[in-house]
Specification:
Strand content: 35-45%
Number of helices: 3
Largest sheet: 8 strands, antiparallel
Shape: globular
Helix content: 10-25%
Distance between the termini: 27 Å
Length: 182
């Protein structure tokens, strides 16, 4: 279970870190979605996203992060974690609930876990709203998690935005639904 929590925590830590340090404003917004393509997947990031890729290796797990910084509004992230031995879908769902709930202060809201898809895979989705544990800036976090059929790859997509610059539900779904797994 701890191996599953590490990549999910990494995606959230990166997104929340931005909210603690970014105070810049940029009103140069447009509506053109940003295409991103690599050997693992292709996706459309929200308008004005600047995508950076990084890799983390921890306790035998390799996680590739594709972090789309959306000006001063927030993040749209893709996390791809490779396992050496298969993990189960129930562990992925448990990691979703336990990991993300731990990032918010008491009194924050977490929605129900719902069934959906991510790429061509069955997935789980959950939405969180409230104050992150390390900040006083209200945050909305949308998360979709899917496990490959063989249990060796975990896909974690998140959008995280300050409530004042929130990405619409429609746009969050557009980001999630644009994932094409290769």
């Amino acid at each position: 279970m701890k191996k599953l929590l590490i990549p999910v925590i990494g995606v959230i830590a990166f997104a929340l870190g931005w909210f603690l340090t970014n105070q810049n404003s940029n009103d140069n917004h447009n509506d053109i979605w940003v295409p991103y393509d690599n050997p693992l997947f292709s996706i459309q990031f929200p308008p004005n996203a600047h995508v950076e890729q990084e890799t983390s290796q921890d306790k035998g797990l390799i996680t590739h992060f594709y972090n789309g910084h959306v000006l001063d509004a927030g993040w749209a992230n893709v996390g791809v974690t490779d396992y050496s031995t298969p993990t189960t879908k129930s562990k992925a769902e448990s990691a979703l609930t336990e990991t993300f709930s731990a990032w918010f202060k008491p009194g924050s809201w977490s929605g129900p876990i719902t069934d959906t898809t991510l790429g061509s895979l069955p997935a789980k989705e959950q939405i969180f709203r409230g104050m992150p544990t390390d900040s006083n800036t209200p945050l909305t976090l949308h998360v979709r998690v899917a496990l490959s059929e063989n249990g060796l790859r975990l896909w974690t997509l998140t959008t995280s935005f300050k409530d004042s610059h929130k990405l619409s539900e429609t746009d969050c779904n557009k980001f999630f639904d644009s994932l094409e797994i290769k």
